[in-house]
Amino acid sequence: MNDFSQYQYIATEAQADYYAVDPDILLIVPPGGMVDTPQLARASADFQSAYARRLERKCATVVIMSNVLSQDAETRRVYRELAENGQFLVRRWWSITPYRARSPVFLSGFPNPAYR
User: Fold this and answer.
1) Higher-confidence residue: 110 or 68?
2) pTM of the full predicted structure?
3) 9-37 burial code (b ≥16 CB/10 A, e <16)
């Protein structure tokens, strides 16, 4: 699935396209072959946090990780902190491959045990 036109386009920020699947669910589509860096992660985290604050409620994100070529430990730390900031119920990373249309790769978040 590479056509995301069925979702509402929100913005392009930190080299990724953002779509609203539902008002409180963000689909994040990085460009193919992206090398994620701490700087891009901070810009993305800032955008996502601002989006959640605008809605005045917790959000969830789905990231298409099959487009990301690499991501180092510092970059992952930035996203982990975002997941722990209390504005997000869950963050899910998906990998889209020719063999499996949807392959869950990683799940983090649930900052409040009541949401588990």
Assistant:
1) 68
2) 0.73
3) eeeebbebbbbbeeebbbbbbbeeebebb
